[in-house]
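QA checklist item 7 of 12: single-chain prediction sanity check.
[x] sequence parsed
[x] length recorded as 237
[x] structure emitted
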Amino acid sequence: MMKETAVNHKENSAFMCLDDKSIVPIGEPGKPVLTGVRAHNKLLVASGSALTALDHDFHVHGAVASVMFNVNIPDNSSDSFYDGQEHVTLKDKVFCPSTPLRHATEHVSIRRQNNSEDGLSLTTPVFFVDTDGGPDHMTNYWSVQLSYIAMFPFHQFIITLDMDMLITLCTASAQCYNNPAERCMSILNLGLQNVALAREPMMDNQEYHVNSLTSLKKLRDVTSRDEVFKQTLNDSL
């Protein structure tokens, strides 16, 4: 029904599919961690060398790839919805975790770039959103609903997207393959296969300090009080 409605109002509609790729682990200096993207647990290793990257090691840092697939709506609802432009926003999971409000901010920026002539108002006032599960995308969560509401209004105090209609859908459990954004993950996997990542080392005293911060909460608490340390750690990542 959602696809049929989008096709019927094609000239006035935008269709976007959303999903976050699983967190890509980043190891400590000199201790790279495998990205976890590998076919049947097999890896390419140069002849005469040993596989020294860590696998399933404890790590705090990681990269989050948020995928927004801007679909070119076809002429018929039975045609492919896998044609369009893919936007990937790369974030650090420590300081820039995926949240509904952060996604909403990204939506506004991308939609103004692609569906606006003046950089503010939209040329397509009807917006369809197809999402996957997770607390930052689950449409029956209040936090997600409020983030969509924040994108919607237009008056003298709040200027966002000035939409006339917003229709959202979240795939059922174990049905994520129905979300076109999920298929885009295979493209990202090509670049991450046979790769292990680690951050750059900081000064010895800073490394000694960060080694005791073994959880996201501890790391965020300390960096919230020390901007210099936070910036140095960001540069390391």
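[x] summary fact logged: Strands lie at 13-20, 24-26, 33-34, 61-71, 84-92, 126-131, 165-170, 196-197.
[ ] second reviewer sign-off
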